């Protein structure tokens, strides 16, 4: 049984847009400097189309589940490529952990320049805002902080566009020094290689797409498409506006962070840096939300893989009552869950064990299944399954409060301690982006789409529609595109680091 979501399309668009658009927006003018206006626009549109399609494929693949509100990278992996599910959760953890650390490092760099004080003080001070936001369970609960973050983005983009008109369009004698502008030709072929990665990774938003889908009040594909298209359109407008305006203002003198090109003593730039620092603080919880889910997924996978040793995790013996979310008993060690189809064209889990108990239903239910059948064909007794209360969030997998807060208040201190000692780790972050972002945005969505889209039709003996066949082929191409981008980005990152 599932619970109805409470999130609206508007709040979901805000959260998804804020997930996509972050501090990376300020590097887009640098992309145009290396690539020229024409190639820069084309690369931005390519990233928008491929990333948007990746989000669409993830949403489409989730619809073959009996309960789409249980969708996540973990549940889809367990239904398609179960042996790879921990690998992609690790990629999610590395991606979110690395980018989150970079945000904390930047917070420590920006706030002292605004208000003085020590770098470490401001990193620790950010916890006053970050920790309460990271303690919220629902993605939709972050909509208000996302709105504030979008206002900060709006100010930054408006400032860059306004400065372009003031200093370039509406004046005959610009008071700034602008280098040459390339409209069609490429300014720097070597720089184009690195800028390609920048614009591709700028659109990463897949880490939160399932939370958004699961919490939607109306999570139909029509509504989801509206959210994805609106978020990608808003993000593209911001990227293109800032990219073109910033580049045309400074030309070949454009720096990696466009704010560094402006007069640091200007009150407008002072306010822009404050907006940037505030945006980093408010964006951190959007990265921590999927990080916590991925860590929990690994924990659940570990218990499913090694059920006989799981009781030792709780420090109890076999005679003690197991925790509420403990899904495995001693007879579950030999259980093997395999995906099958039902007459309802939905994915369920078959448990090949005569001693399967009602507790085993919880495993399948956590993975989006609605029914379990034992090997002898008898339906299991589901009377002991307690559905969530109305209004209560239905988790993708078992996620009790004690583990939710345990992960939260274990991982957050670790991130803060590391950030206090880090000054810069651009190379590591580049590697994280090349592997984690690419896997979540292109490779994995493509694999899911190729295997799941249209499978609900096959389950009831129908031919896959032409549209779904088209989506499947495009999904496969998206996976190949992701592998190419990953290899290309890794090569650029390693080659540039060695040369420097």
UniProtKB/TrEMBL annotation:
It is found in: Vacuole membrane. It comes from the Eukaryota. GO terms for molecular function: L-arginine transmembrane transporter activity; L-glutamate transmembrane transporter activity; L-histidine transmembrane transporter activity; L-lysine transmembrane transporter activity; L-serine transmembrane transporter activity; L-tyrosine transmembrane transporter activity. Belongs to the amino acid/polyamine transporter 2 family. Signal peptide: none annotated. The chain crosses the membrane at residues 12-32, 38-59, 119-136, 148-166, 186-206, 227-248, 268-288, 402-419, 425-453, 474-496. It comes from Maudiozyma humilis. GO terms for cellular component: fungal-type vacuole membrane. InterPro entries: AA_transpt_TM (IPR013057). This is Avt7 protein. Residues 6-487 form the Amino acid transporter transmembrane domain. Pfam families: Aa_trans. The keyword Nucleotidyltransferase does not apply. It is a multi-pass membrane protein. Its main location: membrane. Keywords: Membrane, Transmembrane, Transmembrane helix, Vacuole.
